[in-house]
Design brief:
heterodimer, A: 230 residues, Rossmann fold, 2 domains, five-stranded parallel sheet, 12 strands, globular, B: 351 residues, alpha+beta, Heat Shock Protein 90, 7 strands, 60% helix, 12% strand
Amino acid sequence: MSAATILVVEDEPEIRRFLRSSLASEGYRVVESANARRGAIDAGTHKPDLAIVDLGLPDFDGKEVIRQIRAWSPMPIVVLSARAQESAKIQALDAGADDYITKPFGVGELLARVRVALRHLKRTDKGSSTLVLGTAKVDLEKRRATRDGADVHLTPIEFRLLGCLARHLGMVVTHRQLLSEVWGPSHAAHTHYLRIYLKQLRDKLEADPVRPKYLITETGVGYRLLSDDA
Amino acid sequence: MMGYAWAVGATLSCTAAGLLMRGRFDLVNIAMVYLLGVVIVALRFSRGPAVATALLSVAAFDFVFVPPQGAFDVNDAQYLLTFAIMLAVGVIISRLTQHVRARERAQAKLEAQAETERVRSALLASISHDLRTPLAVMAGASSTLAERGEQMGAAERRALAQSLFAQAREMSEQVAKVLQMTRLESGAIALARDWDSLAEIAEAVLRRLRERLAGHRVIVELADDLPLVRVDASLIEQALGNLLENAAQHTPPDTLIRLRARPAGGEVVVSVEDFGPGLSDAELERVFAKFHRGATEGADSGMGLGLSICRAIVGLHGGRAWAEQLPGGGTAFRFSLPIEQAPDAPVEAAA
């Protein structure tokens, strides 16, 4: 695989320093921008494969960079947020970011997010419709699900929810995104629908619904689908 | 308003008492009863009601008891003197009472300031302990790596770097807790409430604390009929996480920790039960106090804030947090959240 280029938009030089060395140690090419204005320009000139954007930038909001990039590019965007920035995080995701990581984070965590996001980029090209979730298998195209070899009945809405999560496999999807895609924008605030349906999906697909391994809750933000092939 | 009602009530009561005394006692003694009424009202209320009682008392006394009865006869200089004395006593006592009340208020304010001061010094003590120790470790480990790293084996270098990482994480947790407590205290937190599932909150917190709880056996018991709750999920996640961290920190490794949630009356009760050594009755309440870390705990860090943050968060949601001894030994830390009427569930035609 040719080395992917990663744009890092972060104002703290010390944080840029360790991001640079850890990303470079994984073989990525790194482009750095110290503020939002620069970040939006560098995204255009360097055409990176992925952007890491800090939400607390000094000149203007990280969200603005995300919007500007999203206006012309589907590149994966991972945001860095401080704790207690719950609403900023959700706004960034709704503005088009694909995932987030909360400071302080270990580099292992960050590299895992980056790998998932880059893989996502490749997957959307070929498109895979079968999910392997432990002993459960879901064919999203044929709308068939099995667990331990036995058929499992999923409702149309359950398939749609899984489909929406699967399009962002390994990444977080906000409540608003899920509700708008599955029930329509007029239901975007009906979070309790998700609680009910995710419980049903876990009961049907997870071996231990109380400690799910695939249908993961991101408290206050949304959900993340993991799978054994991702 | 209340004070004037009392003025009328006191006058009526004194008149009734006076009527009972009439014939057996002198008029002077009946006047004393009225004086007692004035004193009582003056003690309880401000000057207005006291003066009103004095006025009403003199009028009633004059009208009911002083001959000619059933008519006012203010010409009698004696009773003008009675009135003057009653008025003076009423005014003096109500002023004295006001002074005493003002002093009490000032005293309460001073005590509140002293409490703030106590919390502040406890905060500083906590910061200097909880932050300085990891800082010392970090400075030592990182300078060793920077200056002596080349002379060391790879395993040794890695161990130092890992301890650096662990200490930094721990410190960041402590700082976050101090900030959170400050925010909760200043009332600067606006709840982002939404319908949420305690099962999902429990799942998320167990994942977040996986490493911290790895040394304990954790079992989860959630009632099947657990209703959705309308909460700020990230705050409730912290509240529950603090209870779990507390249980892991204060019980020996391998102790059983049980996380439970069940509806009870109009509430959901969430419990973290540990089968550790348990707490004394006195400690059960004290553990929720800010910066309480148990004088005997020595180097244990962190205890100071977790439980009081939990209590503050749950309180914001209209719930309670408390601790109980478990019958077989061990402690249950519980909090309750009110159950509200959930909105209608989506309807999906069976496919």
